[in-house]
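S.,

As promised, the nickel (II) ion run. Input:
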Amino acid sequence: MAKLDILIYPDPRLRQVAKPVDHVDDNVQQLVDNMFETMYRAPGIGLAATQVNVHKRIIVIDVSEDKSEPRVFINPEITEAIGEQTMPEGCLSVPSFYEEVVRADAITVNALDQNGEHFTLQAEGLLAVCIQHEIDHLNGKLFTDHLSKLKRNRIKKKLEKQQKANVL
Ligand code: NI
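Predicted complex:
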């Protein structure tokens, strides 16, 4: 397994819309393994392939406290979204910023697992938030897009400044 580099906002590659996966083959399985390694080491609770500059519709999530519930979603589709919840969100591509975002409270999602098998999952609370956040990534969207323009620009400027500093 290998740790992959995570793109940092406002990198334009985070805006690419990911393509569906045709076949869940060895390459996809290896990518999934590397995404888990990258997510756990960051540490984070979710990672979309877009964030490691692979523009395929693949997400890994583990919202457990002890890394005991790894979940893989390939070509995920939300088929039902009910209610509303507000939770502070962060993102490995937007390091050290946390802001409240309004999302659906409960969702039903269809996807393929790491073996290419179809499954349907009903999720609520943190898991539902995380799935919605990661699917946004596959569509080139970040949690900052849900914020006011003022907040978004403030985050963007600070991260641009930090990245310039890192280059020197
Ligand atoms: Ni994120």
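Helices lie at 26-41, 125-138, 149-167. The two ends are 31 Å apart (CA to CA).

- D.
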